[in-house]
Amino acid sequence: xxxxxxxxxxxMNLLSGFFSIVLVFTGHVTGxxxxxxxxxxxxxxxxxxxxxxxAWSPLGKQLDSLADMVSFGVAPAAILLQQISSVTGTxxxxxxxxxxxxxxxxxxxxxxxGAGLRLAxxxxxxEQETHFVGLPTPAxxxxxxxxxxxxxxxxxxxHPAFLENPWVLxxxxxxxxxxxxxxxxxxxxxFKNKSSAAIIPAIVxxxxxxxxxxxxxxKGLFPIIIxxxxxxxxxxxxxxxxx
Length: 243
Hints:
Elements: H1 5-24, H2 29-53, H3 58-87, H4 101-106, H5 109-124, E1 131-133, H6 137-153, H7 166-181, E2 185-187, H8 196-216, H9 221-238
Antiparallel strand pairs: 1-2
């Protein structure tokens, strides 16, 4: 019986992602954001329970990737599509199709494609047991879902004007789609790599993330993911042996 518990939790991840997509297209974007967050909690719990119960299985690994594709690939892309549509000044997607606006609406497909490639590569790449190669799909999702929160309330009184530009949002799609499939090494918070070069950045990042989350709550995900990418780039530059 216990071997089915992680898979049941993974299915909750999948269902959370599905209902997030449903809420996006019924106009409840904030609810969709929270469902992606709930999916992230289930994503953590399924792996934790599998290790705790010694219930790892090949089926569970594949199911986890399928659930992540929905919750952290398709759902965030749908949320960003809605955000692009909202800043074009219309709630009717059909009205935004003429001209260049059509390509704006297609841009979130880069997130879907990048997530699919990232998850497939993760399943067959033993190198990613101790660190990540390319931005993890959940990290991309957490950044994307922070966009509507930051657009609505800002960060400590700062309202980023660039998030009101649909071309910037489209550029974010391309950038994060690329970051997921590029060869940039990123440290993991699982602390499987015991070297100080891997542990110290992870501890520093975790500490700063707690501060940012305390200051901004869920909106803190916006600067947290930027910090994660920035730290990875710095480490990539100063540690040439990982290139």
